[in-house]
Amino acid sequence: MDELVIALDGPSGVGKSSTAKLVAQKLRLAYLDTGAMYRAVACEFARRGLERTDETGIGELARTADLRMTTNPDAPRVCINGRDVTEEIRKPEISAIVSAVAVVPEVRRVLTERMRRIIAEHDRRMVVEGRDITTVVAPDAEVRVLLTADAAARIGRRAAELGERADQVTVTDSILRRDHDDSTVSNFTEAACGVSVIDSTHLGLDEVVAEILKLVPDA
């Protein structure tokens, strides 16, 4: 089969995961949620009680962790050091600390290498979504997309996703704070040369997927 990597970037709450999974399902591609990898490391960080200032310890954690990702878009799972943390990584307390882990240079280096290895292991037939996929992880992807939406839309989507667990103040803080924190090490607001921009503010999920499929050769 021909190689087909679809790299999807965007800020928090823009709908990357839902979009990427649906695109992967339609094209029968593997799926990788790179944000879940950072969240898994954050779970282990919290479990060990490390200090946020301990960048050496956080980097060592990322290097030595047994991090395993399933790549089936129908049932993505993530485990770290033998623990299934698929549900835990979505908890508000993990969302609150993931940026502290994600901005550590050694963590980014280690996880970027793992992401590239996973893509290669799947014969470059994969939808990969995250923060700097189009520019750092897979700049040679056949399709590169920056998915955007205004802040109000993103906050509303994340609140709907959390349902009864949602607290408007907490959700707003989580979205805007993560954007601010992550922007210190990743550019996910401006498209690099050759990256297509899709503004999903007024588009439904199926419409966004349709726009991405238009960019895929022979889709």
Strand order of the largest sheet: 2-6-1-7-8
Reading the helices and strands in chain order gives EHEHHEEEHHHEHEHHEH
CATH fold label: Rossmann fold
Ranges where pLDDT stays below 50 over 5 or more residues in a row are none
Structural class: alpha/beta
The description of the largest β-sheet is: 5 strands, parallel
Number of domains: 1
Distance between the termini: 13 Å
Indicate the CATH class.
Alpha Beta
Shape: globular
Strand segment count:
8
- Strand coverage percent: 15-25%
Give helix % range.
40-55%
* Computed Rg: 16 Å
The helix tally amounts to 10
Describe this structure in words.
With 219 residues, the chain is α/β, with parallel strands linked by helices. The protein has one domain (4-215): Rossmann fold (3-Layer(aba) Sandwich), CATH 3.40.50. It is 47% helix and 16% strand. The protein has 10 helices and 8 strands. The strands form 2 sheets. A 5-stranded parallel β-sheet has the order 2-6-1-7-8, with helices on both faces. It starts with a strand and ends in a 6-residue tail after the last helix. Its main location: cytoplasm. One of its GO terms (biological process) is pyrimidine nucleotide metabolic process. Belongs to the cytidylate kinase family. Type 1 subfamily.
